[in-house]
């Protein structure tokens, strides 16, 4: 609402259907620019074991969300040639199929969020007929050697030229000239064919390439290379990618050290090495949230492990959502042409929070919330992002997993954002009454989660991770700037069911958990040392382990206060109907007592004793009784958000200036922002009205809004029932028209404009001298240049005026601005002396803002 207002397991062998890894894995070195395929994963210097790619029937799946199929994508310009081969071609039903751009959905060129459409990644249906078949080409050309990789030397050499002889030791490739520019889909099947349910364990050997029928539903050696022409010897790297790799080593005790590049949808490139993890059947994939749970109606990253009792993870809790693969995995640094085709930014951009935009509005107003009620945080961001907002119990510890803190997570678009808080800490207990709790907001871009599904052993630690392209070359401020990540292998409570996972909150999930069981929750751990901190043996069995990293914004920190629901907030406002009254004239003082709650105020007493120069005539209280001898108004009880009024009529019997003051002198409850009967003029439970002195009334209204170029003006008077100033007799010269706020039924959106008008009326006993009006620029808006205007007098001219002060600019001495820090900017109008007689004792100032 826009309102007118002036002033964040066992090491034993497992069957292929039992082990999953899903975290992008890349080495920390830079691979040579070779053709792409299995030799990218197992170059000449490779150590450890080989994991064959899989292609099985669609009924064979991991965790019911991805099929055990490695679906490859490759970019080619029209006229370029796609060269392919594998160790399964020519063996029974082994084949390589290519589908032209657009035939396999979802289409990657739909943009970085295409994974949110159907069919989901991991469930892609394929056309009945491919655009190209390697076997069909072998038959048509009568060349049984085409597409066959039969030795380790051929795998490393890559495809030969057409005609042969250009690449020494290369295999004879199948070839497909791209008929159009775009992203092609490649399927490489094992000897058992397209719809296999076979589960034969491969050999796991890198040096001795498996080429027989025992590959079954897997393929040991495979290659997809793009060149400009069949006769060219120059490979074009960075063209081949996949959204997930389904792999199979054939047994435990086989350690995988492969490398890949992962590209997030916002342009961050991560290089990661699998670091000798010990999987069997597994999947490599990544996304921006890992596993998700419902938090306040929004699916947010869990950032914990998922514990099940089965290797397939089929019995995971229903309230945990496994986010599908979302980011492309490359086998070399991506070709910028491919990145552009995927509609992913070519450079990573750091997230930023608009300075001073973080704010909290609770049930008790700005920065304040009543006990166990919460409120709403607002801020502005430059990019689409995820966020982590932590409310710290002690103002020092911002650990998001601390039960006494509260963490809020989610994703938001660029621009204005809101985050709701229910007033509870992480344990579900209301934050206690207190002041100056610190709130820390950090935005995240480049967020990448690497789920590790049912991985029993990681003798060297979990994958090694490095950010390749930090924004403007600046690494994030973690424990190891560009090689840090996060993990948490401790117990927690599921938010919806209240189920405890593990032995206790923040206790290690098992005796053989990594030591320590979690990384530093703010600074992470260094993945680039081997072994790193997250080493384990027989721990990952039947678990889904999360590993994540991100690029953080600079934090924004604000305070908030939790106020007891047993307190009250009493305030007084006093007006006089005729500030310029003359000797012998009757005047009426109106005293309004308000209680902002949250509790009912009882035993309320107000002292309103008339000063010398005024003679009592009558008293009219809306409730309670008034004793004109003692000046005590015994109000009684005032409900939360309730008011009571007292009207005193008195005769003026002096020509000297008079100030009549009233204050709250008693209540049974604690007033949270003032102390009764302490004669403190700056507190809101004391109010005064004067006779024979200057008096300037200020009224603010919204007088116009502009939506999509169409302006709506508000030219009728709307009374503010909480303010008697807008009913003063002097406004008969110039009615303060406009509305107090814009209706929620017609909300303003980014780019809309609002016109604010501040009316002034000088009706005291003397002119208002040296007058200025400060109107702060509302948060989440921007002043429209040249819009400040001023009119003096009921029939004066509206002319340019006011001095604009940009956000945080120093303000002049003696100004009337409510916040001397000037967080959002302000306009100060210097009116000089405003007379107290018609018709020049009224006027207004105004400006327009644009909603961010």
Structure notes:
By secondary structure, the chain is mainly beta. The protein folds into four domains: 236 residues, no CATH class; 94 residues, Immunoglobulin-like; 122 residues, ntegrin, alpha v. Chain A, domain 4 (Immunoglobulin-like, Sandwich), CATH 2.60.40.1530; 156 residues, no CATH class. Helix content is 3%, strand content 35%. It contains four helices and 58 strands. Strands 8-7-10-5-13-22-15-16-32 form a nine-stranded antiparallel beta sheet. Strands 49, 50, 51, 53, 54, 55 and 58 form a seven-stranded antiparallel beta sheet that branches. A hairpin with a 3-residue loop joins strand 3 and strand 4. The radius of gyration is 36 Å and the shape is elongated. The chain starts with 35 loop residues before the first strand and ends with a strand. The N terminus is likely disordered.
Summarize it.
With 852 residues, the chain is mostly beta strands.
In terms of per-residue confidence, which ranges show pLDDT below 50 for 5 or more consecutive residues?
Answer: 1-33
User: Helical proportion?
Assistant: under 10%
> What is the mean pLDDT?
92
Strand segment tally:
58
* Terminal-residue CA separation: 14 Å
Gyration radius, rounded? 36 Å
User: Strand arrangement, largest sheet?
Assistant: 8-7-10-5-13-22-15-16-32
Kindly list the characteristics that best describe this protein.
mainly beta, 7-stranded antiparallel sheet, 3% helix, Immunoglobulin-like, 852 residues, 9-stranded antiparallel sheet
